[in-house]
Amino acid sequence: MANTPLFLLITVLPALTLSVNVKIVNGTEVVPNSRPYMASVQENGKHVCGGFLVARSYVMTAAHCWKDGRERRVVLGVHKLAAKKIGRLRVKHYAVFPEYDDTRWKYDIMLLELKNKVRLSNKVRLISLPERDEDVKAGTNCTIAGWGAKSTSGPTVQRLMEANVQIMDREECKRLWGKSAPITPQLLCAYGGAGFCKGDSGGPLVCDGKAVGVASFFQKKNCNNPTLPNVYTKISAYLPWVYTKISSFLLWIKAIIGRKP
């Protein structure tokens, strides 16, 4: 599930043999419209990344899903991407976090400002965000979703898939990744019987009804049987920046109170 660029496809350390059992093939198709916050970020009508609606005119995704000079459009409120009638929303502005570093896998978060505000419905809804600097305890059960590949070399899928994962202790995650990637306090790690793959970057890690992470990177060419956990950008570390970008903040807060997937 994630259209992860080559700079995010990390080389596996030969000495690491502990398997964290991350297999997207164990995901299941979601109940249609059960995740109305999900967004498909597309290029030339084709899905390239996931995303999620955090305000009526803003979709959150990963910074590495942006490519200079390439127009992205957003699809909301669909379960099957091949549906006959599908509206692709234009992006007015790409707000990449200022300190994003595409060589060190840091600050991998972006807001897409849509040209027009979307109309909320049972198929299109916002998802709540965590409190500022809120962390997620190791062992917490969470979910991921996306239209990405179900296997390392497989194609992206047409119907939205979901899977259950668990938050991993950050120090353990740091030990496993070693020098291959800097696991900082601004990241979350997850493992379990499923994980994300090509086409899922930018999708949300959802815990207790809130989007707490943005799918960022995974083990190189190994969605099926990786020895390393998936890594997400921790949203709570970036909330001050997010709030400065989202207009009508008070109205946005009112809109998300009590809204859960």
From TrEMBL:
<keyword id="KW-0732">Signal</keyword>
<protein>
    <submittedName>
        <fullName>Complement factor D-like</fullName>
    </submittedName>
</protein>
<dbReference type="InterPro" id="IPR001314">
    <property type="entry name" value="Peptidase_S1A"/>
</dbReference>
<feature type="domain" description="Peptidase S1">
    <location>
        <begin position="24"/>
        <end position="247"/>
    </location>
</feature>
<dbReference type="InterPro" id="IPR009003">
    <property type="entry name" value="Peptidase_S1_PA"/>
</dbReference>
<dbReference type="InterPro" id="IPR001254">
    <property type="entry name" value="Trypsin_dom"/>
</dbReference>
<keyword id="KW-0720">Serine protease</keyword>
<dbReference type="InterPro" id="IPR043504">
    <property type="entry name" value="Peptidase_S1_PA_chymotrypsin"/>
</dbReference>
<dbReference type="InterPro" id="IPR018114">
    <property type="entry name" value="TRYPSIN_HIS"/>
</dbReference>
<keyword id="KW-0645">Protease</keyword>
<keyword id="KW-1015">Disulfide bond</keyword>
<dbReference type="Pfam" id="PF00089">
    <property type="entry name" value="Trypsin"/>
</dbReference>
<dbReference type="GO" id="GO:0004252">
    <property type="term" value="F:serine-type endopeptidase activity"/>
</dbReference>
<keyword id="KW-0378">Hydrolase</keyword>
<feature type="signal peptide">
    <location>
        <begin position="1"/>
        <end position="19"/>
    </location>
</feature>
<dbReference type="GO" id="GO:0006508">
    <property type="term" value="P:proteolysis"/>
</dbReference>
